[in-house]
Amino acid sequence: MAVVPAHRLALLGGGFSTDDDGLLDDWVLSQVQAPRPKVCFVPTASGDAPAYVEQFLAAYQSRSCEPSVLQLFRRELDDDALRTFLLSQDVVYVGGGNTANMLAVWRAHGVDRLLREAFGRGTLLCGISAGANCWAEGSHTDSFGPLTHLSDGLGLLPGSVCPHYDSEPGRRSSYQAAVATRALPAGWAVEDGVGALFTDGLLTDAVTRTPQACLYRVEPDGGSGVQERALQCRLLVAAQQPTSPA
Asked: What's the pLDDT at 240?
């Protein structure tokens, strides 16, 4: 009997582009059993910003993995090669930027369909900011300037996602208003520093690199407001380096 792979994705509130300690990046890699996992960075939301690509490569080339980058604004792969490339990855890491623009570009190139296929085959999908928003049914975004809701995600994670819940003015109240009015379904609010792993749609791990950061479940309260529930996160700590004998 064939083994059905688990469908896994991770929402990140940090990583190589914002943090110096590398704890969330190490956590992502620890979710993959391959000794040298293939990790593809997708910087579409930033317009394939060169500096962002350089940050990723600088962070991941020093780790025990095989990093690569998928750029779509200067696409080099035909459809068959693109499919082969994406489906060979152990991890697809999506960067931050403009969620709405990213989804439109993905659909134009068929990347949305390939990510669904990779997800079904067991590839770990993850990302920060827009790269967290994209996996859910809907998200809270500044893609259009002011903070608003976007009911246009890939739908791989039931519900909605709000990134930067604690760090950007207006995020918390605006997301709660969207959930309260049913403009967005109930969902997950991610503070900076948090990582949340979902397996087959269920939360299976929640971590943080800072003791104060939380993951929240935000749901309508049955009236005109919301219920916000903080979920316990496991604190990540840096591995201790062996000391030399005196």
From this structure: 52
